[in-house]
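>> Question from a student workshop board

For tomorrow's exercise we were told to take the sequence and the ligand below, predict the bound structure, and bring the output to class. My setup keeps failing. Could a helper post the expected result so I can at least see what it should look like? The ligand is iron/sulfur cluster.
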Amino acid sequence: MNRGLRDLRLSVTDRCNFRCRYCMPAEIFGKDYPFLAEDKVLSFDEIERLVTIFVSLGVKKLRITGGEPLLRKDLPTLIKRLNAIPGVEDIALTTNGVLLPKSAAALAEAGMRRVTVSLDSLNDERFRLMNGNRSGVQAVLDGIEAASAAGMPVKINMVVQKGTNDQDIWPMAAYFRERGHILRFIEYMDVGNSNGWKWDHVFSSKQILQLLEEHLPLVPVEAHYVGEVASRYRYQDGSGEIGFISSVSDAFCSTCTRARISAEGKLYTCLFASKGYDLMELLRTDETDESIREAIASIWTNRNDRYSEERATRTQSPAKIEMSHIGG
Ligand code: SAM
Ligand code: SF4
Ligand code: SF4
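>> Workshop helper replied:
Here is what the output should look like for this input. Compare the format with yours to find the bug.
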């Protein structure tokens, strides 16, 4: 499909301090869940080596994710090392935000350019219901504030689930418009096998747009570049911008330039893949950088993933990797 390799999403841990129902439902990700042992997670040396190889194949942008990436010990040290790799143009973070007050300054200092904080509601009760009762809203708002104060632009990601938090769409938009943060609405996706996803739970971007326009008119904004995931709109009165990530209603597989590496070093060429390619095995044997590079190039060249484009016509759902392994 002639899709380049431009972005790399690195999951630095499979663990999380939240239990969002749509991602890591507590009844499945409980005390006995077999999270990865420390020696089964890519080390900083291994991540740095892999990123150098990916950059030689065209990657320019990195996104650090999880699980919850801020649970990874010494994350700023890793960011500093990745930032020093020639060819890395941008490093961003996706986080639930609650640990940002502790680490934002060190991350910014290390070279983290941008942060996306996930927040699904400004209503404490609903937010707790969605995150498995792990955090109230204020802790996340404090995280957003800390990242901003450290000089990192912050975007907000809101997953919208019909019947769960659709009443929060306008309050979220109004709140972040006032504070100058771009809010992006994410359609609830059928990632993994554990969240009980149904078409009925999806609140589409089109419905969100209609709802917002009852409050304020919006106009579409040109994409910054080919392959931009979010469709962007701005308020007609110039008071801000929002985005829509419409993986379900408006698939963007034809411009998908994103590779994903799980904490245990598996390469996934699609968010909905059943199978990853074991790069850790290559790293921990005597393979040279050149042979790992060739292996990655061959996997990428031969990929034909287009799950979202095929979703509506699929009769059976395949076994899929969990979101918490590859971080979105
Ligand atoms: N823990 C971090 C966080 O929540 O931002 C990073 C990892 S999380 C898996 C990355 C993003 O995926 C978050 O914005 C989260 O809301 C989103 N996400 C998780 N499960 C999802 C689903 N089923 N549908 C749509 N987005 C989802
Ligand atoms: Fe954790 Fe992020 Fe998944 Fe929520 S969405 S459970 S914060 S990894
Ligand atoms: Fe890329 Fe797979 Fe998402 Fe399509 S479904 S945009 S191929 S990750």
